[in-house]
Design a protein that fits this description.
The protein has helices at 24-27, 31-38, 56-63, 68-71, 76-82, 116-130, 180-195, 198-205, 228-232, 243-251, 270-280, 293-300, 303-327, 390-400; strands at residues 2-8, 41-46, 92-102, 105-108, 135-141, 144-149, 213-220, 236-239, 255-257, 286-291, 332-337, 354-360, 384-386. With 401 residues, the protein is α/β, with parallel strands linked by helices. α5 crosses α10, α11 runs parallel beside α13 (303-327) and α12 (293-300) runs antiparallel to α13. The longest helix has 25 residues, at 303-327.
Length: 401
């Protein structure tokens, strides 16, 4: 048996008046997820345990079979692993966004999805001016970068994700608590460095949002993981364009597969991700495919983009995997789900349970659910499960088939 988990990040949503009270999943054309639902078992997954922030770190950790209560130490250390940045025991890694501040407001958490090449120049300029032996800035992908602080600096600071406070006043959401004075000064001192940089001057002249401020959040120490094979006896791979997910894969001992054209955005190589996933199963037991696009559209509050991202996920990822699985001589158990909702109206994550379907290429029992959406899955025979139990549930269902 081969096992596949397909994650459409942030696909779940709330009913929208402009959709006649339907959600994005209810409105979108998703024939492949609906087909799997009609021929599989449905339920709701709690990927964000009570008391945890509804971030993609906690939620995807759960989906990949790791209980956040045992393994979660923060988002940024996972991203550091993906970027090949070693962390000493006393090092604290922070996600460092390049954001756009306009008139004192946090206008854009992604600086207009700035290119990695432009961002590298900006982060290196900040590091040249503000970095030290205790504070080191590392360029990443697009707007996503890292700050590593030594000696536990800021580990317990209260830092707010910028995508949670779009259009909020910068000064109202600055770091608070232990170490916040240093973190706040770094943020303030980055602004004149970045606003005067030629990269941003050019972006402004072209009508693009500048990356004119750094912003820290998601900090933590390096976690300690058991490998996926130790936990489940399965070998596996992970496919994503997002450092966070790749970092989870590295800590889990999974192969991290890089797919050409995978961007973590609406223009990602959906089909390539699905094809590389199926190819990986020739010598592995398990693969996770993560697609960021629906989440990005949710953060932008762009309904049309989210509908398109969900439909692209269904057609190009789910459809490609489903066809290949049916044509294969191997047996497959496939789970499809979002990690968390990213409602269009809120433009940030929420923590409620998300719909999931478990489908097998073997003849198996099915339930009465006909469509893949938030309401229909409430009637699913699998009920409400902990997301971190999904991998074990897949293996148990496969044994019963």
């Amino acid at each position: 048996m081969k096992y596949i988990i397909l994650i459409g990040d942030g696909m779940a949503d709330h009913p929208l008046e402009e959709l006649g009270g339907r959600t994005v999943l209810q409105k979108a054309n998703t024939p492949n997820m609906d087909q799997m639902t009609k021929n599989g078992l449905a339920g709701l997954a709690i990927n964000v345990p009570e008391g945890y922030p509804p971030g993609s770190d906690v939620a995807n950790m759960s989906v990949m079979g790791y209980d956040p209560a045992l393994y979660y130490s923060g988002r940024a250390p996972l991203e550091a692993a993906s970027m090949g940045i070693p962390l000493e025991a006393s090092d604290v890694a922070f996600r460092c966004n390049l954001i756009t501040v306009k008139d004192g407001l946090i206008a854009d958490h992604s600086a207009g999805h700035i290119t990695s090449e432009e961002a590298k120049e900006l982060i290196e300029a900040v590091d040249d001016e503000l970095g030290s032996e205790e504070l080191k800035f590392y360029p990443g992908i697009s707007y996503r970068h890292l700050l590593v602080a030594s000696n536990g600096l800021g580990a317990n600071a209260d830092c707010t994700p910028p995508h949670d406070v779009i259009d909020g006043k910068k000064d109202d959401h600055m770091p608070k608590g232990e170490g916040s004075d240093i973190l706040g000064k770094l943020i303030e001192d980055s602004i004149p460095i970045l606003e005067g940089h030629s990269v941003n001057e050019k972006r402004v002249s072209e009508g693009k949002n500048p990356g004119n401020c750094v912003w820290f959040w998601g900090q933590g120490y390096a976690p300690s993981f058991r490998t996926f094979e130790e936990l489940y006896g399965l070998t596996g791979s992970v496919i994503s364009a997002v450092d966070l997910i790749m970092g989870l894969g590295i800590y889990a001992g999974l192969d991290v597969i890089e797919v050409p054209g995978a961007t973590g955005y609406l223009d990602t190589n959906y089909v390539g991700k699905a094809e590389f996933a199926m190819a990986s199963l020739k010598d592995k037991d398990f693969v996770v495919v993560h697609v960021e696009a629906p989440d990005e559209a949710g953060h932008m509050g762009n309904l049309e983009a989210k509908l398109q991202a969900v439909e692209d996920f269904d057609e190009k990822v789910v459809g490609t995997v489903l066809r290949a699985a049916k044509e294969s001589d191997e047996d497959y158990t496939i789970v499809v789900l979002p990690d968390h909702p990213t409602p269009i109206a809120l433009r940030t994550h929420t923590s409620e349970p998300v719909p999931f379907v478990m489908y097998s290429t073997l003849e198996n029992e099915v339930d009465d659910v006909e469509s893949f959406d938030e309401d229909a899955m409430k009637k699913g025979s699998l009920g409400i499960v902990r997301g971190c139990d999904l991998v074990q549930l897949m293996m148990e269902r496969a044994k019963q088939a």
